[in-house]
Structures are given as structure tokens and as C-alpha cells.
UniProtKB/TrEMBL annotation:
Belongs to the DNA photolyase class-1 family. Its cofactor is FAD. The lineage of its organism: Eukaryota, Fungi, Dikarya, Basidiomycota, Agaricomycotina. One of its GO terms (biological process) is circadian regulation of gene expression. Residues 1-51, 218-238, 619-654 are annotated as: Disordered. One of its GO terms (cellular component) is nucleus. This is Photolyase/cryptochrome alpha/beta domain-containing protein. FAD binds at residues 329-333, 375-382, 494-496. It comes from Kwoniella dejecticola CBS 10117.
Amino acid sequence: MTALKSPKTPKKEVPLTSLPKPDLSPRSSKAPKPSSSSKHPRETQEKKKTGKARVLYWHRTDLRLTDSPALCKALEIEGIESFWPIWCFDPEYVYKHRVGLNRWNFLLESMEDVSQEYKSLNEHQKLWVFRGRPELIFRKLIKDWKVTHIAWEKDSNAYSKVRDEKIIALANELGVEVVATPGRHLYDPDEVIKANKGKPTMTLHQWQGITSKMKGIDQPYPTPASLPDPGPSDLEDHHEEQWGKYEGIDLNADVRTGKDTCFDSLTGPSDNPFSVPTMDQLGFQPATTTIHGGTNEGHRRLDLFLSDPEKVSTFSKPHTAPTALEPSTTLLSPYIKFGCIGLRELWWGCKDVVEKWRKNGGKGETKEPENMFGQLEFRDMYACAEAAVPHFERIRGNSVCKYVAWALQNQYDDNGNEILPRPRDEDEEAEKRFEAWREGRTGFPWIDACMRQLKHEGWIHHLARHSVACFLTRGQCYISWERGMEVFDEWLIDWDPASNPGNWMWLSASAFYSQYFRVYGLVSWPQKTDKTGALVRKYCPELKDFPDKYIYAPHLAPAAVQEKANCIIGKDYPSPILDEHVEKDLCIARLKDAYHLNYHGNDEDVLNGTAEKKLKELHEANGHTHTQKAEEDEKKRKRSGEGALDKFIKREKK
Ligand SMILES: Cc1cc2nc3c(=O)[nH]c(=O)nc-3n(C[C@H](O)[C@H](O)[C@H](O)COP(=O)(O)OP(=O)(O)OC[C@H]3O[C@@H](n4cnc5c(N)ncnc54)[C@H](O)[C@@H]3O)c2cc1C
């Protein structure tokens, strides 16, 4: 294990009242290795019958030991006799959520890493991994292991709340104490929403106003330097329950190998019980990403960022480069998503560095929202919106989402449930555009490179996310943001239930942002940070020999240039699927209509279909349909004596 600096000495003293006493110290003090003469846990327990609490610490998206308020709170429980850090591999997650191979891989690596961290504190410890539905597992463990407390890091998003409620109900039924502690955000979203009178925070300014009246952000919490022993680990599995039973559709079927053994038994293979499953056991093919999970890798990246005071102090998100081959931002999002690093470590680490930089006369310090603090605040702002808005992840029923008559919107049955698997939409053209976008073959190299990078790596730069999301929705394709979000749900390693829908609503000008007329250019935008098209050459290798001049618009290259580059557009690389400028104008016009009618996802007219009808009528009346637009363009061209492609070439020459 690498010795890591603590960003700041914690000011918070954690009272250590429990017996045996876990040692909580800052991460910088490397955990002592257990001596080779350590006794077997059961033997040790015989001698120390001092305590009576038997605690399960349930890891979810907090795969770290550092800066964990929830873990600290769990270790403070009075009189701990046995302590098991556990993980439940839930079939609902494995089958019901779209999760790409890169995120699976990252998760398993992070679980393995945290398990090793536990081992380094106490040789009898590890991450105890179970395979099955948490409510069944907890029932069994409470009975068989005589558990008295269940502790976890509380999250406020809709997914977690449903899961938490089940376990809380079970604990109440069986007389077990629950210790759920927030820690995934700078401020507990539930508290912020309460302070905002139950309303979501829809601007950063609003979030800042509310939190400025709350207690300041906690300092990083200390890392345990020792850990109580686990209790007995025998657990009879008579297959009395179908631990991994799942009857819905397997949304990850397309990335499976056809054989999955993860849920064959509650505790995993008999020769390695409670172990972290492998990709193979989960039935998955290998991942493709170069981004690796783990609290150690997360801290290495964090330390690297903090070791550059100028970079930290002058960080300005709009000035980072989406075209860079090496990430020009921190690439900490996957580690934040899986809780491999603590948020307070990053926040106070940056505060410390910036303060020193200032004292040393550093110049050019950036301010919120573009600096690092602003980035983390945006994350909290979305969490406080998601937790307060039912159906935040879709249009229908979502009170903050403007209604636009997008193509390929989610379909619902009479009971309001989404129809899955999704029937192919009647709008063939939109389906084709969507597939081309997803697969990175739109004929616009910047979009295609970003989408191919996303699929391959599970991460792309924030402004690359802007580009592809804008293109798919209000920029050119006029396709529902729900469809784009779903692809991100699957492919992003850093997928977050608040940040993903929140940012998709932002980019489609459905909420948080309203300047729908500002659209990213498919050539001009990437050219701002890289005229050579390095990212395109990497992810669209068929274009690698095009001269810089045509790298973002190879369809404009003369035939001789295409031949020389060994890539004929329309044969070796697709022709553009649409006319960038015509579609942009149409999209802006339709968004203007939608803003005029100003419907939201929970309006009665949206729920009963009237809004869509009214909007389409308005588009028709205003001349905002493809046919009307084509006729109008044709007339204009005839008047000016222009050929169909002339304007592209002129634009290119400018
Ligand atoms: C359409 C779209 C979808 C997105 N989906 C997600 C998602 O599912 N999960 C996710 O973590 N981020 C999402 N983002 C936000 C942002 O793109 C990523 O957080 C960022 O690119 C991660 O890279 P980084 O760690 O290098 O970021 P940095 O610039 O180094 O920022 C540091 C941290 O700040 C937070 N952050 C920065 N910008 C945002 C933002 N706009 N919204 C929320 N948090 C932010 C992240 O935790 C990030 O790790 C999305 C953005 C867009 C446009």
C-alpha cells in the first residue's frame, strides 16, 4: 500500500467509546500490519467478552476507509464484539440496471482493493461479499450471526431510498439498530432540501445561498488504524432461499458470455468463500478501459492533482480541453462515484493548496463556479435536485423538466410503467440517427470520436459530454435526452443518478439552463482546442491520414485528398447523417415553440398527450417541420443561384 498524505489534519475528534477500541487516525499514519502471532478471531473473542454489539457495516458506494463519516460512526458503536464490513451483490443491480463492462470492472477492482485495506488493518478482516438480495441476506445474518446493528453510508437518491426503506423495515421487525450516516456529498442533500422548504436547488447560486447558512463542510474524517475482529464466519447455505432470484428482463444480456455463476451460492465458490466475484463469475466479457478502480489508485490521482498548486489554484473548467489525449481535468469522477476517495479529502486538500499558493504570492486564482470548488458544488446541486424531484430521471411526471416534443421519448403503459424492452419507434429516421450517434458513425468525426472513446474507456471529458448531448438533443438530432442519458447510464464508469439526468436536462435546455439557441459547432468547437484532431485520429483511425484542414469535416475534402488518405467518405467512413446547419435551425425554432408553450413533465396536458399534439400543431403553423424547411431552403437557393453543398464549402473557406 502506498503511504498517502492526509490533505489536512482532521479537526474533528472522534470519541472512541467502544470496546475493543478501533484506532482512528489520519490516513497519513500508515496502518500497522497485524503481528504474525495474532489469534484466530473466535479465540480472541473468548478472552474479550467485554462487548455485545455485533455490527454489519454495509458498503455500497463508499469503497474506502479514509474520510468516511459512516465508517467512523459505525466504529463508535458502544461495545463492539464483532464487526463485519460486508457487500451484497444484488441481482436487481446485476440484471435490472444497465451497467457496461468498464463499470463492472472498476467496481470489482475497487471492492478487491478495499478488502485488502481491511486485511492490512486486521488479518482476520476483509470485505465479506454475499451474493443475493440484501433483504434476504440481512434476515439470515441477523439470525445466524446474531447481528445487533447495521450501519451504512446514507444516500438520498431515489434508488438508495427504496433500498434503505426495505432494510430499515426489516431491522425494525427484528429489533436491530440502524446507523445510517450521510457522507457522499459536501452537505447532506436531505438537510439542504429541508432548509429550502422541500424544494430542489435549481441553480448553483440557490444552492450556495442555502448552504452558506448551514454549518461548514466537515474536515476529512480520520482513517481507522485498527479494526475489531469479525465474529464467526460459518454460514450454512441450504439454498433455503433463492438468493439471486430475478424475474425481470436482463438489461445487460448483450454483454454476457452466456454463463454466469455469481448467484450459485450465497457466499461464492467453496474454495474462496466471501470473495469478490470475477467478471467471469458475473458472466461478463473482459473490460476495455484503461481506467482502474480502487481507493489506492483514487488517492494516487488525488495526490497527483494536489501536488500541482498552480493547476489546483487556477483550475478553470471552461478552459480545459475536451480534445486532449490525456485528461485535462482530474479524472476523479469514477473514484468519487464509487466512494474510493472522500469528498472532504478533495475539498480540504484543494483549500489547503490554494491557501498556500495565495500566501506564496500565486497569481491568477480562479473563482467559482469554474474552479474546483464550483465543480464539487455542481455535483451537490444536482443531488439536491434529484432527491426533491420525483421522476428526475425521465420527462413524464418530472416537474422541473420542460416539455419538448422530442423524437424517441420513453413510452409508458396505462399504469405509468415504462414499456420495456422498448418497441422500435415508428420514427425510422430518428431511430437511424440515434443508432449512428450511439455507435459513433454519424459522419461527424468529433461526435464519433467522443462516442467511441466513451464506449471504450467509460469516461469522456465534460465538454465532450456537452458536445454529444447537445448534438443528440437540441443541437441537431432532436431526440429525447432520456435516450442519450440511458447510453451514458450504461457506459459511464462515473454514472451518477443525479448528475447524469441533471446534466442531460441542462444540455437539452430542459432544466437548469435555457439558452437553447447556443449550439456547439461540430467543426469549430473542437478546433478551438486542437486543430490537428488528435482525438479523432486515435478513435477514428480510418481518418488518421486526412490533413488537419479536413479532419473534423472529411466529407468536404476533394476526392483526391480522400484517395490520398486511403479513406473514401461514404465507403470507408460514413457521410454525415444530417445537414448540421439546417437541423440546427429547425431545432432552435422548435425549442422556441416549446419555450413558448412552457409545459413541464408533470402537467396534465403532457400526461394525456395533448401537449405533444399542441406543440406539433404549433411547429406546423410556424413552418418548423422538415418539409416546410426544405421547401423554404430550396426557394432561397434558387433565388441566390447556389448549389446544395455550396454553403458548406463557403463556411469552410471562411
Ligand atoms: C451529459 C452529461 C452527463 C454527465 N453525467 C455524469 C455522471 O453520470 N456522473 C458524474 O460524476 N458526472 C457527470 N457529468 C458531469 C461531468 O462531466 C463529470 O463529472 C466530469 O467530466 C468528470 O471528470 P473529472 O472528474 O475529470 O471532472 P473535474 O472537472 O476534475 O471535476 C471534479 C469533480 O467535480 C464533479 N463535477 C464536475 N462537473 C460536474 C457536473 N457538471 N455535474 C456534476 N458533477 C460535476 C465531479 O464529481 C468531478 O469528478 C455529466 C456531464 C454531462 C454534460
